[in-house]
Amino acid sequence: MNATITPTGPAFASAEALAAQVRSGERSATSIACETLERIAAQDPQLNCFTAVTAERALAEAAAVDAAFARGESLPPLAGVPYAVKNLYDVAGLATLAGGQVNAADPPATQDALLVRRLRQAGGVLVGALNMDEHAYGFTTENSHYGSTRNPHDRTRVAGGSSGGSAAAVAAGLVPLTLGSDTNGSVRVPASLCGVFGLKPTYGRLPRSGTYPFVHSLDHLGLFAGSTRDLALAYDLMQGGDPADVACAQRPAEPVSTALQWPAGLRIGILGGWFHAQADAAARQALDLAAAALGASDEVEFRGAETARTAAFLITAAEGGALHRERLRSRYAEYEPHSRDRLVAGSLIPVEWVVQAQRLRRQCHQEAMALFSRYDLLLAPATPFAATPLGAATVDLHGQQVPPRAGLGLLTQPLSCIGLPVCTAPLWPALAGGLPLGVQLIAAPWREDLCLMGSAALEARGLAGTRLPQA
């Protein structure tokens, strides 16, 4: 195996391992919480992942786990595992910022978002809220109000977005598990740039109850971890519908964490066309490495990719603009320059354009379903290039100057537009010069198991994995 692409292993104990240590009595949840809070205090000032640290809550939740252990109770799967959430998730006692200064004076949330409650029931210990692009409208987490989140592998570069704080916190080893959201690529882009595993489930799979919306018809909730196994474990614990989210499918939970073995005979296609043209040499190298490891050789084309991305742009602008229209009229100056003019423009898009975009979205979905009649899994790069320098206005992509705040989603938007489940696995191609680049493992709706199996196979073959940031 080429040493230049081999991960050095996770920078921290996995969530599964930490919980096992707590259940066995080897470590206390309180000691893990204290170590985590100390690590955040020491490292986060240089990274800016957190917008709030919930130290008092974390110690209380850890103490409750330890008390249950002392009483001889059976502990839940994530007992004592520290985690953090993108600051668009409601956290009781905190104002839900969604990255925006305009939300800072809102009343604190009275209860946790549903997925936060589920992780707490599973024994998780919440240590804080994480930085993001304002109102999730961006791919770099360069936030005018709360500062830029820096990439742990090169602090002069972006972490990706809009869930940049979530990905960077895992990549830096601050916590083993975080929650984010993905409208147009906001889990997959930062997972790729920070070198961690990310899962965007099928649209409607995880309920969004208690989270700040961006684009109702495109918003997904997702998660980040240092291994496929941790992704699958946490995903299983969060499954289950909720009537409060009308877009959430009321499907029974379908556990995946017990079935990550790579099965023989899976049909794998490599997405070419748009996904090849919009990727640089390093991103193509990452894809080639993944394809070779999984025995994939068939190149296929999703001809509707550019159309799906265009539809996503229109739907995003229109729904996002409509959501913020009234406050933009009265509090325009409190919105950041990166997004406020785009929101205003989006609020003026004619309804006929949105209707047509939704029609095209359905057509693209039908084309993708035809591909899945021939293939079980599709592969594509997650981002067109590696992490760009902070403040960069453009980056060269095959002679074209591409703005990172929009261009980083070139390869993710077509897939979230049609709601497909995707797992991003981090690779370390030699051409990326020591930076990570992710590969998307894409399956038909409700087949998160196949995405995670593919990711686990890349991990087992020593190709995908987290890497300790260089000091």
TrEMBL record:
Domain Amidase spans what residues? Answer: 36-452
Which Pfam families does the entry mention? Amidase (PF01425)
Q: Which InterPro entries match?
A: Amidase, Amidase_dom, AS_sf, Carboxybiuret_hydro_AtzE
The entry's protein name is AtzE family amidohydrolase
- What organism, scientifically named, is this protein from? Comamonas endophytica
